[in-house]
UniProtKB/TrEMBL annotation:
The keyword Transmembrane appears for this protein: yes
Taxonomy, superkingdom: Bacteria
Species of the source: Deinococcus aerolatus
TM stretches of this protein: 12-37, 43-63, 75-93, 113-133
Keywords linked to the UniProt accession: Membrane, Transmembrane, Transmembrane helix
Phylogenetic classification of the source organism: Bacteria, Thermotogati, Deinococcota, Deinococci, Deinococcales
Protein name as it appears in the record: DUF1440 domain-containing protein
Length: 145
């Protein structure tokens, strides 16, 4: 396991989570996230969202980290990764956790399309921050050699 990929993935996930979390706050969606842990507090929803964001970022680092060859590649891979998580999160896992069943039939509602946009933005920030952190770490290691 490449610990640099893990660290960059978690930090990139948190950065993306901050941006996406602000968008979710503006749309009033954080209480729904908080409901996953039995709360209706926007603050709790934001904390839960950041924890999930860090975990998803960790997955990015593990699954795609070695494929990120630069910032542009990181942004595109992050955008695609965000799309995958849009399907897995709000269309599959979250509805199942809330006892509603998968929501594929609802995928193209206005709310879900806004969620898709948020997930893509999250992924782009994740990928960009990941690539920048990796480039900094590679440059530091080369300078030390």
């Amino acid at each position: 396991m490449n610990t640099q990929n893990v660290k960059a993935g978690v930090l990139g996930g948190l950065a993306g989570g901050l941006v996406f979390g602000m968008l979710m706050a503006m749309m009033g969606m954080l209480p729904m996230i908080a409901s996953l842990v039995g709360s209706d507090s926007a603050v709790v929803g934001f904390v839960v969202h950041l924890i999930i964001s860090a975990g998803i970022g960790l997955g990015f680092g593990l699954l795609l980290g070695d494929r990120v060859t630069g910032t542009c590649a990181g942004v595109w891979q992050g955008a695609l990764y965000g799309m995958v998580w849009w399907v897995l999160g709000p269309l599959v896992m979250m509805p199942l956790m809330m006892g509603m069943g998968v929501q594929f039939a609802q995928a193209f509602t206005t709310q879900n399309l806004m969620s898709l946009m948020g997930h893509v933005i999250y992924g782009m920030v994740l990928g960009a921050v990941f690539a920048l952190l990796r480039a900094r770490n590679v440059g530091t290691r080369q300078a030390l050699s």
